[in-house]
Amino acid sequence: MAECGASGSGSSGDSLDKSITLPPDEIFRNLENAKRFAIDIGGSLTKLAYYSTVQHKVAKVRSFDHSGKDTERDHEPPYEISVQEEITARLHFIKFENTYIEACLDFIKDHLVNTETKVIQATGGGAYKFKDLIEEKLRLNPWCSGWHFLFRNIPHEAFVYQKDSDPEFRFQTNHPHIFPYLLVNIGSGVSIVKVETEDRFEWVGGSSIGGGTFWGLGALLTKTKKFDELLHLASRGQHSNVDMLVRDVYGGAHQTLGLSGNLIASSFGKSATADQEFSKEDMAKSLLHMISNDIGQLACLHARLHSLDRVYFGGFFIRGHPVTMRTITYSINFFSKGEVQALFLRHEGYLGAIGAFLKGAEQDNPNQYSWGENYAGSSGLMSTSPELGPAQRARSGTFDLLEMDRLERPLVNLPLLLDPPSYVPDTVDLTDDALARKYWLTCFEEALDGVVKRAVASQPDSVDAAERAEKFRQKYWNKLQTLRQQPFAYGTLTVRSLLDTREHCLNEFNFPDPYSKVKQRENGVALRCFPGVVRSLDTLGWEERQLALVKGLLAGNVFDWGAKAVSEPWLVDSYSEWLQRLKGPPHKCALIFADNSGIDIILGVFPFVRELLLRGTEVILACNSGPALNDVTHGESLIVAERIAGMDPVVHSALREERLLLVQTGSSSPCLDLSRLDKGLAALVRERGADLVVIEGMGRAVHTNYHAALCCESLKLAVIKNAWLAERLGGRLFSVIFKYEVPAE
Amino acid sequence: EPLRRRASSASVPAVGASVEGARRDRLGSYSGPTSVSRQRVESLRKKRPLFPWFGLDIGGTLVKLVYFEPKDITAEEEEEEVESLKSIRKYLTSNVAYGSTGIRDVHLELKDLTLCGRKGNLHFIRFPTHDMPAFIQMGRDKNFSSLHTVFCATGGGAYKFEQDFLTIGDLQLCKLDELDCLIKGILYIDSVGFNGRSQCYYFENPADSEKCQKLPFDLKNPYPLLLVNIGSGVSILAVYSKDNYKRVTGTSLGGGTFFGLCCLLTGCTTFEEALEMASRGDSTKVDKLVRDIYGGDYERFGLPGWAVASSFGNMMSKEKREAVSKEDLARATLITITNNIGSIARMCALNENINQVVFVGNFLRINTIAMRLLAYALDYWSKGQLKALFSEHEGYFGAVGALLELLKIP
């Protein structure tokens, strides 16, 4: 029986407003299937975590059961597609103001009443003392485990904050070498923790001057009761009216002495007088500076003592408030002279809830899996700065959602990355590049009609396809508008994240594979052409054939856009080096990341694979685990390979002898993140000693990985199918990228 | 006239107060004034500046003035002594309060001191920085400029008020680096002792009001030393030798913060009043302690139950805000600022690998609560590795250093 142990109100003491109407079905999604609950009622925010399952449609491909080869006819598709229901696990995290707590709990209780399996873990609530106990005592462990969970699964979790620069948020790429670092949790007091590994951390110090000091002292000085209001006051104040600055002590001479006159010599130094009134705003600002500077200074002293150069901040004092992130960052820069970096987390407010939840959900082994942020269901990082887009935040500012999908397979780094910590998949950071950002956002907006049409067309038998497609349009359009305003909302904005967001939104409205029929048809056509293509290739001389194979790879890559010819000369051309290399000994094993279905995989990639096999090179062919655009999926590649094997003895024996291996990438993105690849793929790459990586297509070789450095030879091939991008790279539409790279000795 | 102008050409210190880690150069010298009188000839022969001998330290809140009163004045000398000089001497030595805010700390007076071959007493006087204009006006009224003396001054105010000294008082300041003066002053005062007693002291059993004892400390091995000067703000210096020191860091949470916050929270008007209130208050009503959260010690972190978990943390609650007294708030402010200074000082001592820490500055004046807390906190959190030391003339070292510069005493 569901037990709801949540009670205890925020210390603000406000009466609960039950009159507020919620759209709870939009907030508490998938509640019917919720399996496990954790609730954390804080001073002003309630955090809710639950583990649920989502049922959604997936497109599966399956070979026809042919009784004999002669049954194959020209009009017949090469395989059948079936749409199946699949159940996957999803984590929901919701953060909302305590004002809504009663309405929300009622809603939750109503929806849980019929189930017997659910457990509500009340990590908040109860007596005041108990709440504090939870807040302070249990915070460290969950905080660390919550942080490492997010860190492992959300690539752009941590960021540095730079006020007055564009972008204000600069995200860090997560890598496994972050240890050791300092963690500073600013709750009512301050805890300073040295983290050496995921499970080894040590409390090294603390300070009593923290968020509670800001709140408590602030309430006394300004008669303002709420923490957020105090911050708001502070953001409007002038601390120089209250603080004694260096220029107040030195007069104008600070300049000749090389001192900064604006440095604070004595916090509240000017308030030591009976005959002057000070404004609430000014006092709040002075208090904020005093506390932030003090914490920054202590953090720097501890960082120095332990020789650490990164400090991650969290706790309710930070909680995404630009004003506190700014003062803390300033303080760290000042006291460390720029040697220590202050970092913040996108989902800081969830860490305690996630940690507590993970602990409770141990039997589901959440840490055994890889998880991915669902861009469709998550509300993203909102700037809580009051002057930023208030209209936009009507509800999103009140209810903040994070959804994470459990991925089928654990994801790891490609072992062939030259330097995993410095690997950045994306070629252009759109958060950074305003011009490119505008272009691509517009580009995706303009393409939206086409995507909607394609989605509807892919499900001719569905009665509600048009309605769902319209919902998809609205959702994705809203995401694009959010990103125009706050490009940092989901981490670094890239073409990849825009594409992935679109895929997530399509899935959300049950359009799992809008291209499945197109792919089916094109695969059928290409398969019929395969024997002829191979025959004609075999008639060519060796050198001619190598060029034809490369052109085939490039052509297949462009056919989906209906291009007839590529642009000459090639924009990036290291073909002669590649040809030279082919005259040498064969590679041991090639890892190939395939792009499109149809001509690309069948007439481009497979003949190339066949040539490698004939040279004595083993081949690992990696395709997406799930559908994205018209990219070939692992499932499709298996059928295609089987069909080709039926026509071609080289491929046939290679498959049988496991010299040709078909694996999945673990991804469902049109782009490629080499730091999040299927664990099995990584193991195979290691086992077979892959010494050549081939990446083809715009999404995988240009939007991502164009600058990726590998520790073995690599080929990056693509045709630039976008005029704007071609121009930016200094070429024309349909320019060819042929990038053969050999790592430096 | 041209001579006096020349007399004041001491160079501006090369390095500013908050430039950290810089090693200091010795100050350039200045040339003394000349006169026809015998005393002046004598002074010149002995390379001694003319009377009066002052050292001035103009801080953010307080001005500290040390005055050397010669007691070996011969009848002849007295006869020749100009009226204004005599008047200054009489005024300063016959009063213990000047105007409504100036105070001579009689108990600190150093007797029978020999400075540059002259015997006399050293007087310690303080007044608020906001009365600086009145002080300058007094200098003008008493015709200071006719004495052709040199005013050695340190502290930020030496810069801030330089122009006023010149235009209103017709006096040119010799500006001196405050950290140089501070260190010079401390070392000198420690060397002369305190009228036969020790200058430096420490607390034994600081947490136990019954057993707590203030005991003399012999600073015979002063180096390395962490020097924490708590004025309006705080400066922390690591001193390796007389001429080798660096500013490690500083914090804006200092005496000015304690007094400023107390004024806002309690409506008090003087530092003495703030301390008096604090002495009667109970900070545990205001602060959230470790035991308030954990019910006792928090062993996992090695945190004792009495430690403050969140300063002013109880004030997040409306009920508790209504239940505290002004005295409690004053006490909590004092404890918060003092603990924080102790904590920063301890971290600096660890980083610099120094184990004796001398706390000075006027925040500690008549502030036994803060001194005992610093002594206890340093000892407790360092597990006995760090020793907190204090000095009788807590706030006057900068002014003494300025006087020493005037006398060119190394």
TrEMBL record, chain A:
It catalyses: (R)-4'-phospho-S-sulfopantetheine + H2O = (R)-S-sulfopantetheine + phosphate; (R)-4'-phosphopantetheine sulfonate + H2O = (R)-pantetheine sulfonate + phosphate; (R)-4'-phosphopantetheine + H2O = (R)-pantetheine + phosphate. Its main location: cytoplasm. Residues 445-731 form the Damage-control phosphatase ARMT1-like metal-binding domain. Its EC number is 3.1.3.-. Its cofactor is Ni(2+); Mn(2+). One of its GO terms (biological process) is coenzyme A biosynthetic process. One of its GO terms (cellular component) is cytoplasm. It is found in: Cytoplasm. Activity is strongly promoted by Co(2+), Ni(2+), Mg(2+) and Mn(2+). Activity is inhibited by EDTA. SUPFAM superfamilies: Actin-like ATPase domain, AF1104-like. Homodimer. Interacts with PKM. In the N-terminal section; belongs to the type II pantothenate kinase family. Phosphatase which shows a preference for 4'-phosphopantetheine and its oxidatively damaged forms (sulfonate or S-sulfonate), providing strong indirect evidence that the phosphatase activity pre-empts damage in the coenzyme A (CoA) pathway. Hydrolyzing excess 4'-phosphopantetheine could constitute a directed overflow mechanism to prevent its oxidation to the S-sulfonate, sulfonate, or other forms. Hydrolyzing 4'-phosphopantetheine sulfonate or S-sulfonate would forestall their conversion to inactive forms of CoA and acyl carrier protein. This is 4'-phosphopantetheine phosphatase. It comes from Macaca mulatta. The gene is PANK4.
Automatic annotation (TrEMBL), chain B:
One of its GO terms (cellular component) is cytosol. Residues 8-19 have a biased composition (Low complexity). Coiled coil: none annotated. Keywords: ATP-binding, Coenzyme A biosynthesis, Cytoplasm, Kinase, Nucleotide-binding, Phosphoprotein, Transferase. SUPFAM superfamilies: Actin-like ATPase domain. One of its GO terms (biological process) is coenzyme A biosynthetic process. Residues 1-34 are annotated as: Disordered. It is found in: Cytoplasm. Pathway: Cofactor biosynthesis; coenzyme A biosynthesis; CoA from (R)-pantothenate: step 1/5. It holds the Pfam family Fumble. Its EC number is 2.7.1.33. Belongs to the type II pantothenate kinase family. This is pantothenate kinase.
